[in-house]
Write a structure and sequence with these properties.
The protein is α/β, with parallel strands linked by helices. The chain has 8 helices and 11 strands. The protein has helices spanning 29-32, 37-47, 52-69, 85-94, 109-116, 148-159, 225-236, 276-284, and strands spanning 7-12, 15-20, 99-103, 124-128, 169-172, 211-217, 246-253, 258-264, 267-273, 292-303, 306-317. The strands form 2 sheets. The chain has a 7-stranded mixed β-sheet with strand order 5-4-3-6-7-11-10, sandwiched between helices. Strand 8 and strand 9 (267-273) form a beta hairpin. Helix 3 runs antiparallel to helix 6 (148-159). The model is unreliable at 1-11, 20-26 and 132-146 (pLDDT under 50).
Length: 318
Amino acid sequence: MDRQSSLTERPIGDLKVTAAVQPATEPSLDAAYGLSPEQANFFKAETGIDDDDDLRTHILKVQRKAYEIFPYLCIRLGIATLPQYENIIKLGQQRPDAILLDIGCCFGVDARKAVADGFPLRNVVTTDLKKGKPHHNLATMSTDTDILQEFFHMGHALFNTKPETYPINFVPGDAFDPNMLQIVPPFNKPPSTEKPDLSALTSLNPLAGRCAVIYASNFFHLFSEKNQLQLAKALAGLLSCQPGSMICGEHAGNWQKGMFYKQHEGMRIEMFQHCPESWNAMWDDVFQKGEVKVNAKLDEVEKPGLSYYRLQWSVVRL
């Protein structure tokens, strides 16, 4: 079989992912497990599994099931590493009806971490793509398949919960569909309408001007430069105008903006990456001067079988 016929290409967001039809290596999930003591304590408390070996077995079992849908290393716990995390929790505790939106939530791990540390569960909204069919590799995946609602529901398996026992608000949908998330100008005064019932949301549009925190981790880098700007404008319209309200997160970046390529787990991934300077400049096209303060820093992340530059950032209303 020649090289061309042995590979398949499928878009994930705006990423171009090329993978062998039959990958030569098993995903190195065991090597990537590596929980810190703080992370292990969180998972023990939330799953009810106290034994280290039993916890490892449980997490890797769920992760392997997730890998059959799509090979994201998606059991992540990143929100607590953000410099703004303490302020996020304070907003939830001190501002009446402060809303935390986790967009591209995957398993919902970060939202659960915020709740465990004091952000009211009733005021947390998570969102990801709609449900699709599970696929075992890229070769059999339809280009229009939405899969990530599968991951969110697997979060209940990960944490040994059910929707009835852990009623976190989840709104499935496409952030680029105006019926889900319409672009509106950033608010300069509070909305005049009543706060919506978060448990009854069918789109994010009723949250316009109401979110105290919008958390977007490993999400922006799935899209082209043009679509990252569109997404930024859409999220800006959801943000509360109250000082301290923020959009924050992290994703792959680089020292200069452009298209970059990465080999990982038998896949070749092509994505657009911002640098700190271009990321800051993008938000100048979203908010008026003096409305927000943007911070972005780049550092190198080393994981088993994978290294990349991580852009951690925040956009805070003044």
